[in-house]
# Entry
Amino acid sequence: MIEAAEKLGKGIGISAACRAMGVARSNLYRARKPRKVMVSRTPPPRALRPEEKGKVRTVLNSELFSDCAPREVYATLLDDGIYYCHWRTMYRILKEHNEVHERRRQCRRPANTKPELRATGPNQVWSWDITQLRGLNGDCYYLYTIIDVFSRYVVGWMIANRESAELAEKLIVQTCTKQGIEQNQLTLHADRGSAMRSKTVAQLLGDLGVAKSHSRPYTPTDNPYSEAQFKTMKYRPDYPNQFDGIANARRWTRQFYFWYNHQHHHTGLALMTPATVHYGQTETVYQKRQQALDTAYVAHPERFVCGRPVSPKPPDEVWINQPQREHQTITLAGPATSETEPGAQAVSRATNGRAITSLDTAEHRVMSERPLAQPGAPSVLLPKFELELSHNH
# Structure
């Protein structure tokens, strides 16, 4: 094609010929220049001989200098009256053997498996976390929050003056009792804070029959629902810069969580409130919305250029770290076609241990679906705790 463009260009011009033949002019000009034959360059007489380079490399990789930069090696040898070459030449020698990298000892952490949790209904996967609330005169209060991953409903919360595993135990027990959690029904996910990884909490979850799951170290995206809920709270217009005492903090938080659970139309829930999804009122709200849209469509069909509007529904399943499947677009939380049996499913590949305290992928991948317990349903409370006044609502 290039030769034909050259011949045609003699009559109509190079630009026109290239357009007619579909050839880029740069390719034509490049073809005119013969490629230079690369000739191996003879090393100059002052260059180090191969055996000298080998000796320098041996010194650089010796036990004495294995964790030192070439500049440090160069200066140390020079102080001892030894000179092999300049430190820039040392770099070039290391580069020839692909050894130019961080030479100091690095912290190597073991690989952590990503937790994968799936919920197809309320009270199957909970996420909990602790955040700080600023008080006056440098005081600090700790807000413990447990949120249902499927419905985004805050099932339990508490404010205390300290971060404690014992306080977390009480909140978990009271919340499980209030929601009527049964054995092997729930997975409780958290990050790797000291209270979350404490032995007392682990033993409590084992007694309750609740599987535990943890985020990977330094990976806040493994606990997205709790983090997003805290951001929603702290970006509220009336969120105080400082709380005037713990009583004031509890009062404000109680009002916020009532708004969040019963009035906040959540984007991830098709603009339904968490309470609507948590307590199974989704279909009623959906029918009411669809009826309003149908009425508007009948009155003014010309305003709906895409046809009859359809009210969206909340997702059928919600994931923390949904595993990637072939030919499927991955979303953090949204409707997806599942290849497994319907029902509550929670998978944790990040935890190891006994079957009751943590999920094992091979043995506990599928958990049976259970109906949601209504508020106030009786449940078994561990004898070590007395059901005291909680800030749950």
